[in-house]
Specification:
By secondary structure, the protein is an alpha+beta fold. It contains 14 helices and 21 strands. The model is unreliable at about 1-20, about 180-195, about 490-500 and about 530-539 (pLDDT under 50).
Length: about 550
């Protein structure tokens, strides 16, 4: 992932596989050109191959354009918003400053909006690099060396990403970006720059003893689920139609890349104070709140896993965040060893529709250096599903999620959620079918409370009430709702304190399946106006 503060590892250090999973005719034709000994003829053939590559990427190609007359130009490339002058070289020696000057002489005859692309299989000299950077006002020259050319021939859709990256590197950071990195880029990568200060959660986590903890953990395994306290419904809008999804597969090579991804999301305004996350290992899961807590858990992986008898070689993570118009998840897999190699990383959005101004999302694509074009996909079913749990399922509370007094107007800490032992884990009780893949693999669950209560007034009995579930491309967002009772009695339908009789009766009337005759009579009696009955129910 190139977030432009640091670069990708050297070609010698990464596992770049030039051979694609399918046969690339462009790569095959390039291999055939290597047997041509005549440099001029080989350059002409490379030029024709590059023209085919740009057409595959849906660029308009103009052969032998007259844009820089009387100087000859190999070909020009036109996109919807840019014009490029292309020069192709395949010499034995790296291209020097004379080649750069020749390209700039062509740019000098143009209006200043055209950018030069220099494709050179032998790379460029140090003097050429200095000339490109030092004389940027005389014209921009973007360099594609052998590694870049192989990447683009393997997948022409990579051209958009490479052009954005090289342009930003030259204009913003004042350096030439090539597939083969130099010592300057190595120094930047080894500088140890990490993510900046991320938002702190508005919630505070307490264990059963009342002590503040950075995260909750419990027995479990691998699953794509993440518990959340808030789950926006992108279909809850007056307009007809359905929501959309958008995926951004991020090229992250290691944990520093993942931390910079979180930092970039924050800098671009995509983070808030209500995020939740989960990390899964073999035998244990961790659950927490806040982007800063998530990055801290990633950095402290050795301490987190030190007590595991047989830790797996990797761990899964899911980060959930509410954003403008919907929500998104950041999910992936990272090695549980010193390398902290990221095997995959994907940012998946669900939005109420396609934004009228997609500029903020385009900025994410540019910042994340996403290696493919993005497409909105319409959701074919409701984003969020809601169901009630069958019967009364008591919970064993292990910890609390607190909204502190400084976040509220009443200056009192309130319990808004809790950590509980999963009643479906290792027992004969079966979870609902749509929750089975998630609740069968975790020993603890994080619940949001349907009725909040002050921390100073703890309750003895909590029960599962309902659940909401949404599915992104490779993650599940789960909002488990719990309710509390003042005391146990024979009335199984009695609500918690704070819900008046008429509201309670209306909730009964809206329940499914339909009420029995006895329940309807009870609702009818409750709905009868009683001027003296204004106090909340006390169990």
């Amino acid at each position: 992932m190139a977030i432009h503060e640091e670069e990708r590892p050297d070609a010698a250090d990464d596992d770049l596989e030039i051979e694609p999973w399918h046969e690339s005719d462009l790569l095959r034709d390039l291999a055939a050109l290597r047997s041509i000994s005549n440099a001029q003829r080989r350059g002409y053939k490379l030029e024709a191959l590059l023209e085919r590559m740009f057409r595959r990427a849906h660029y308009r190609v103009v052969h032998n354009p007259r844009m820089a007359r009387p100087r000859q130009t190999d070909f020009a490339v036109i996109s919807h918003s840019h014009r490029y002058l292309v020069e192709a070289k395949w010499e034995r020696r790296p291209a020097g400053s004379k080649v750069v000057d020749a390209v700039r002489s062509r740019l000098g005859r143009l209006d200043g909006t055209v950018v030069a692309l220099l494709f050179t299989m032998s790379g460029i000299t140090e003097q050429a690099d200095e000339a490109i950077v030092g004389d940027r006002r005389d014209g921009l020259v973007l360099v594609f060396d052998e590694v870049d050319i192989l990447r683009a021939l393997r997948d022409p859709q990579e051209l958009d990403r490479l052009l954005r990256l090289k342009h930003d590197e030259l204009v913003v950071h004042g350096r030439v970006h090539c597939g083969e990195k130099g010592e300057a880029e190595k120094a930047v990568r080894s500088s140890g720059k990490t993510a900046g200060k991320l938002p702190t959660s508005r919630y505070r986590l307490l264990n059963g003893s009342g002590a503040t903890v950075p995260w909750f953990y419990g027995a479990g395994g691998f699953s794509p689920g993440v518990f959340c306290l808030d789950l926006p419904d992108v279909d809850w809008v007056p307009a007809a139609g359905s929501g959309v999804s958008l995926d951004m597969p991020v090229a992250a090579w290691g944990q520093p890349d993942l931390l910079r991804l979180m930092d970039a999301l924050n800098e671009l305004g995509w983070m808030g104070e209500r995020s939740q996350w989960s990390i899964q290992q073999h035998g244990r899961n961790w659950h927490g709140c806040g982007a800063d807590g998530f990055t801290e858990a990633l950095r402290n992986w050795e301490e987190r896993t030190s007590q595991l008898e047989d830790p797996y070689h990797s761990e899964e993570f899911v980060y959930f965040e509410v954003c403008d118009g919907g929500f998104y998840t950041v999910s992936g897999s990272i090695s549980a060893e010193e390398t902290r190699h990221v095997m995959r990383c994907n940012v998946s959005f669900q939005l109420i529709g396609i934004p009228l101004d997609p500029g903020s999302l385009q900025q994410l694509y540019r910042q994340f250096d996403v290696p493919s074009r993005g497409y909105f996909r319409p959701l074919v079913e409701r984003s969020v599903t809601r169901e009630r749990f069958d019967g009364r399922i008591p919970l064993k509370v292990l910890g609390y999620i607190i909204e502190p007094a400084d976040q509220r107007w009443d200056e009192e800490d309130w319990v808004v959620g809790l950590l509980a032992a999963n009643p479906f884990y290792g027992t004969d009780l079966r979870p609902p079918d749509d929750l089975a893949s998630d609740l069968d693999r975790t020993g603890v669950i994080v619940c949001t409370l349907r009725s909040h209560h002050p921390l100073s007034k703890p309750q003895e009995h909590y029960e599962l009430w309902s659940y909401e579930r949404a599915r992104t491309t490779d993650a599940h967002a789960l909002r488990i709702v719990a309710e509390w009772q003042e005391s146990q009695d024979d009335d199984k339908q009695r609500p918690a304190v704070g819900r008046d009789i008429r509201r309670y009766a209306q909730e009964l009337a809206n329940q499914a399946p339909p009420l029995t005759p006895e329940q309807r009579d009870r609702v009818k009696a409750l709905l009868q106006p009683k001027p003296t009955e204004s106090k909340p129910i006390a169990a």
